Amino acid sequence: MAVADDHHAGCDGCGRSVPLEELTVVTMPDGEHVACCSRCEPHARAAAQKYTSLDQRRGTCDGCTGTYLEAELEDVVLNDGTVISCCPTCVANAPDTDSETTTTGSNSDTNGAATDGDGEDDETTADETLCTQCHEWVSAELFRVTTIDDRTERLCPTCKDTAEDDGIIKDIEIRKTRAREVLGVEPGATDEELRTAFHQQVKRAHPDQQSGSKSAFQLVRDAYERLTEDT
């Protein structure tokens, strides 16, 4: 508010100098206070109401795919760094993003572990994880893939197979289930056990060995890196 003299001030609307007692303060949606004369006050209040009603932008929850006000959506960071927007309900049901508690099982286990296209047992988590493609919460270990446009996605086995068929996947990171099979270790193996297993397997897989090859050598390295990246 521009002060003209001790008893007058400028209206923030029209700029006229009017007596102080004729000015009314109107609070705008962004918290700004404007001083208006009697002629500008209705316009200021109408503008404030209009801007408030316009601030109703909506977005989609990545969990349930419902539509909510953007102010109601909250960003959730998954274990691999993927950020998803969730409504309050999905935030409350979101999996633990700080740790990855896992158990293993066979196709006949009652915990419902699924089997991927390679026939290996999937790793199930204590809490379900969200497929970033179909937006379904699944218990199977997700595939971390890089698409041809360099996006990182976490896909369930079904969506991974579909994406491969569509030719949009550039790279698929080895899953922990498969990585443990390559190194021959159990879930919860210590750092020392992982290092020992790695040294044993990498010697067998080295291209200089009769039993080794470049692809086998790289597979062992990828498996070790996958299991130690979070430690």
Structural notes for this entry:
The radius of gyration is 29 Å and the shape is elongated. α4 crosses α6 and α5 runs antiparallel to α6. It has helices at about 40-55, 90-95, 155-165, 175-185, 190-205, 215-230; strands at about 10, 15-20, 25, 35, 60, 65-70, 75, 85, 100-105, 125-130, 135-140, 145, 150-155, 170. Helices cover about 30% and strands about 25% of the residues. Among the domains are: about 10-55, Ribosomal Protein L24e, Chain: T (Roll), CATH 2.30.170; about 60-95; about 175-230, Orthogonal Bundle (Helix Hairpins). The strands form six sheets. A three-stranded antiparallel β-sheet has the order 9-10-11, with no helix packed on it. A three-stranded antiparallel β-sheet has the order 13-12-14, with helices on one face. With about 230 residues, it is of the alpha+beta class. Residues about 50-55 and about 95-125 have low confidence and may be disordered.
Task: Compute the CA-based radius of gyration.
Answer: 29 Å
Number of strands: 14
End-to-end separation in angstroms reads: 58 Å
CATH architecture of the domain at 176-231: Orthogonal Bundle
Binned, the helix content reads 25-40%
Specify the structural class: alpha+beta
Strand order of the largest sheet: 9-10-11
Report the sheet-strand fraction: 15-25%
CATH superfamily of the domain at 176-231: DnaJ domain
Count of individual helical segments = 6
What pattern of helices and strands is seen along the backbone? EEEEHEEEEHEEEEEHEHHH
CATH topology of the domain at 176-231: Helix Hairpins
**Largest sheet features:** 3 strands, antiparallel
Name the average pLDDT: 75
Q: What is the CATH class of the domain at 176-231?
A: Mainly Alpha
**Which ranges are low-confidence, i.e. pLDDT below 50, for 5 or more consecutive residues?**
52-56, 97-126
| General form | elongated
